[in-house]
């Protein structure tokens, strides 16, 4: 049986107001974090840096991103598949510019994203994480795991 998992690397990019950068690829409806598939022989970080340069003209270095963990959700654009996403926070201020397959980008308030269509990973993990991070203030990346545990297992 063929594996129905797509391995991707995605970037969590926030501005100084705590809004999250989301993109919509050409020919699709759902907004999601920028990033993409991990090529053979690539690490997740290498894939993320490549994808951010291709999609948004962002030239980042390994030291500009922090690993937030790996998350699984239904794929937004490939029915019957699941994405397994390595999520990284971009820690440097950026000025993205749409290119490649990106049709549209938007800075979204994670607590009130409005009526845009969101990818399941974005809706279920990324925006809730950002809303908590924004509410609790600056935190070390090690605190993100605790926040995600609380989001996934509310008591």
UniProtKB/TrEMBL annotation:
<protein>
    <submittedName>
        <fullName>NUDIX domain-containing protein</fullName>
    </submittedName>
</protein>
<feature type="domain" description="Nudix hydrolase">
    <location>
        <begin position="3"/>
        <end position="131"/>
    </location>
</feature>
<dbReference type="InterPro" id="IPR000086">
    <property type="entry name" value="NUDIX_hydrolase_dom"/>
</dbReference>
<dbReference type="InterPro" id="IPR015797">
    <property type="entry name" value="NUDIX_hydrolase-like_dom_sf"/>
</dbReference>
<keyword id="KW-0378">Hydrolase</keyword>
<dbReference type="Pfam" id="PF00293">
    <property type="entry name" value="NUDIX"/>
</dbReference>
């Amino acid at each position: 049986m063929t594996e129905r998992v797509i391995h991707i690397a995605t970037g969590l990019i926030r501005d100084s107001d705590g809004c999250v950068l989301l993109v919509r690829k050409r020919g699709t409806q759902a907004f999601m974090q920028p990033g993409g598939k991990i090529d053979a022989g690539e690490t997740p970080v290498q894939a993320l840096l490549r994808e951010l340069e291709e999609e948004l003209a962002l030239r980042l270095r390994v030291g500009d991103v922090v690993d937030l963990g790996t998350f699984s959700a239904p794929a937004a654009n490939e029915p019957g598949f699941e994405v397994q996403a390595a999520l990284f926070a971009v820690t440097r201020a950026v000025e993205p510019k749409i290119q490649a397959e990106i049709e549209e980008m938007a800075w979204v308030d994670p607590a009130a994203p409005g009526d845009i269509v969101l990818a399941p990973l974005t809706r279920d993990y990324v925006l809730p994480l950002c809303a908590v991070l924004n509410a609790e203030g600056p935190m070390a990346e090690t605190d993100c795991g605790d926040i995600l545990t609380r989001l996934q297992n509310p008591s």
